[in-house]
What does this fold into?
Amino acid sequence: MISTPDVSVDAVVIGAGHNGLVAACHLARAGLSVEVVEADDVLGGAVSTVERWPGVRVDRGSSAHVIIRHSGVAEELDLARYGLRYIDCDPWGFAPAPSPGDPGPAGRPLVFSVDLAATCASIEAACGAADAAAYRHFVEVWGPRSAAVVRAFGDRPSPGRLARHLWPLGAPTGGRPRTPGGELATDFLGSGDALLDRWFTSERLKAALAWFGAQSGPPMSEPGTAAMVAWVALLHDVPPGHPVGGSGGLTSALAARLAADGGRITLGDGAARLLVDGPPGDRRVTGVQTASGRRVTAPVVVAACHVLATRELAGDDAPPALAAAAPAVGNGFGLVVRALTDALPSYPGTSADEALQGLQLLCTDRAQLARAHGDWLAGELPREPVPLAMSFSASDPTLAPAGQHVVTVWGQWYPYTLADGGDWDALAEPAARQLIAAVDRYAPGFADSVQRMYVQTPLELERELSLPRGNVMHVEMSLASMFTFRPTPALSQHRVPGLGGLYLSGASTHPGGGVSGNSGRTAARLVLADRRPAARARARAGGTIAGAIRAVRQVRGGRR
It folds into this structure.
């Protein structure tokens, strides 16, 4: 644990995950003195990379970055100047044939490229001309809609703001509505499965797109999941990417940017409690005390950690909105196997260039997804796990020495609490072997190539990355936990009513999990917006101490 002296700054950020670092960078760029405090010895939270085995760099959380490639966060902070370089995943998706030995259409894989024409050609070869034409039209229709969702994700959540982002999609054009309002509402509020059934006939195509959409958490049978499927429309413009050197390349660049603007990061000495002062009804944070006892005083605290961790840090000072917060954390999310192999997966009937650049969506029938989710609901391990594989060492030689590879295998819907009381520490290896075997069914010989494994069960995700119940999204991503409901209605505006100066960020808040940086940027914008009235009031007061006190009271009174 690091021992450093007490300090006073303009803002302290709790948590050095990517959202916390994005918030800190925006505040420091605006001229504020900023310190980030982090309990972990590793920078980046779930966006980090470590040397898991000698010479082998392995991601601890995310690997493929999707939303941040569209959010504009990396460009606004000029992170390329600070070392961030993405390798495009192109093709960004691959779905194997259910019958690899079949030379006909049933034996052809689906390959999703940035090039829409090439993608449609792959769909036509495997699923027929009708679905290829439907997919092209789907991208044309849902491209603008998904772009509107991108804008809504980057803005504060409110019904009015959401309507402003989505309303133009149905606005009149030449006297006729572009999209009937009822159809638009049905599409956005409906399920991903229903959307796929309306557009396509091939179950193989629908399964691949449903498995992509399900990466946000809910099964595509749930209401409000249509937009999660439709995000694919944007990937024909900008694909997912993997930072050179691992996912932690993003947070390393953020740290370098922060340092260039005078900000500071303290690892290994996280916040132990919030410092709070003021009379009842006008309580405000005054900083944090760290685990070592150090005090970092500041009029602004950005809690870029899980909302339940923020509640614990507030303790008896938590106002009702925070003390009563009971977000939908759920019963786990998934299981990850980080495999060191001596060969890359080899899928019959396709080349490595087609299959290994992006997400290997190893699902050919939505019934597989339904069974896995049903087992999760019952508190059981999936009888038939559905894998998603990623092998970025195929395009990034910095991850492993020659002749070795890192393959990440993700299995979704693994419960944190098992109905039979099973012990995850005992179940980790057999569950991992079962998931590896599921990949081997599509890529024969893969299981034999595995030399070592690092297994992140839901319990281990909680231990290693401070993710309660192993939920990598912090809070469920169902419709009832999004926008103005996230993490709860009372806390959805990134502020904590009854505790001035405290701002919320991270995956617990809008727009949710995934690598986007949106939440950190929004929190920073709120901090800066709230400082402007105070600065104007101080200027009007003439700069005296008594005037400054009056100014602060005026600003507080205006917000109550």
Remarks:
- The radius of gyration is 24 Å.
- The CA atoms of residues 326 and 541 lie 42 Å apart.
